[in-house]
Amino acid sequence: LINAFMGEVDEASSNAQEGLNIGLRMKALFVQAVAYMRLGHTKQLQSWSDREESLECYQQALDIVSSLGVERGKAEPLFGLCLLYGHQGNLDLALRYGMEGLRVSNQSKDDWMAAMIELAITVAYYKAAAYDSSKEWAERSLKSFIRCGDSFLSTVAMFWQALIAAATGAQADLRRVGETLLTRTQANDLDFLFTR
Fold first, then answer.
1. CA–CA separation, 160 vs 153, rounded Å?
2. CA 40/CA 56 separation, integer angstroms
């Protein structure tokens, strides 16, 4: 997952495939489910336009965790589906999966995954040019990541805040968020946020 966050698609794909192979060898269904989730993420990063492989991976993961009765395990593939449909411009489906993922995450008290899904909803609204809603969800995800103590993903949330400010011409917001974003990226070697 970390490799995917950093835009290291080949490494993320290799790790996910290795996890799947281990899960199959051990006949460990939950390990297989997690591997399918991660493969879904890497397939998305490899091609935003060809969603079929990602959909198959997420569906496989959902089928496995459902068969195991692990409700909490549904949150990550639902996050992936929200992001996938958001990037495809299908706001209705993105929100359907995102809201279901939030319900699952909140029910299982997984604040970090809830923040991830809030960020995916931010992206879905942004891609639909619904900038007011995107701004609200970006702020919500930023606060959630700060509460979770995740400085990397709070920086990613700020990245989306900067994109929203730029898209709407909100110069004061762009300056405020942009300065903090640049300071954080330089201090923490996160320049790849702008290059990958």
1. 11
2. 8
Alpha carbons 140 and 142: distance in angstroms, whole number: 5
Quick: pLDDT tens for 73-84: 999 999 999 999
116-154: buried (b, 16+ CB within 10 Å) or exposed (e) per residue?
A: bbbbbbbbbbbbbeebebbbbbbbbbbebbeebebeebb
Q: Of 125, 183, 115, which Cα lies nearest the Cα of 153?
A: 115
The region, left, alpha or beta by phi > 0 then psi within -120 to 50, assigned to residue 150 is beta
Q: For 20-39, what is each residue's pLDDT tens digit?
A: 999 999 999 999 999 999 99
Return all residues near 98 (Cβ < 8 A) that are at least 6 apart: 78, 79, 82, 86, 117, 120, 121, 124
Is the four-CA dihedral 118, 121, 126, 127 of positive or negative sign?
A: positive
Helix 131-148 / helix 151-168 crossing angle, nearest 10 deg: 160
Nearest to 75 by CA among 33, 28, 134: 33
Q: Kindly report, residue by residue over 106-150, the tens digit of the pLDDT.
A: 999 999 999 999 999 999 999 999 999 999 999 999 999 999 999
Helix or strand holding residue 177 (H, E): helix 171-187
